[in-house]
Amino acid sequence: MHDEILCHVTAYGICGGQRVGVPLGTYRAPTLPLALWWLRDRAAWIAERLDPDPGDARWPPGALCPVADTVPDVPAELRGWCADTGRQERVAEVLAAGHLMRFATCDDTTEYEFMAESVDAMRMHRAMPFLAGSAPGG
Fold first, then answer.
1. Cα-atom radius of gyration of the chain, to the nearest Å?
2. Rounded to two decimals, what is the model's pTM?
3. How far apart are CA 78 and CA 111, in angstroms?
4. Per-residue pLDDT for 83 more than 60?
5. Which of 38, 47, 88, 90 has its CA 20 to 30 A from that of 117?
6. Residue 65, pLDDT score
7. DSSP-assigned letters across all residues of 68-136
8. Which pairing describes strands 111-118 and 101-106: parallel, antiparallel, or unpaired?
9. 81: closest CA among 91, 67, 71, 72?
10. Per-residue pLDDT at 137 exceeds 60
């Protein structure tokens, strides 16, 4: 079991003809359950900002307008990812095995990427060239 999990959320878009990443959050989770909670929380937070409830009193009438049906529904994809217990269990299995987890969804302007990886696995991956080079006869 890998205890600490490093989580990142990044939005990517095109600016000046180049792909640019904007960090939306990073969290070093002390446990796997907290990493999963943080990733779901960030996904729900982004979904709410992209697709707020028009009935919410914070928004004046006419402030929000629907998008065309042809636009990919990133908020629905994010909410679905959060609610899908099977997908969440697979994420937990991947992370518990020490592998990198990546989930991404995009619309016509932006890609939203969620990544997480065991801190121990990252350390071991970085150390492997040194460990292999120091082996007798290597």
1. 19
2. 0.82
3. 12
4. yes
5. 47
6. 83
7. PTTS--HHHHHHHHHH-HHHHHHHHHHHHTT--EEEEEE-SS-EEEEEEEEHHHHHHHHHHHHHHHTST
8. antiparallel
9. 91
10. no
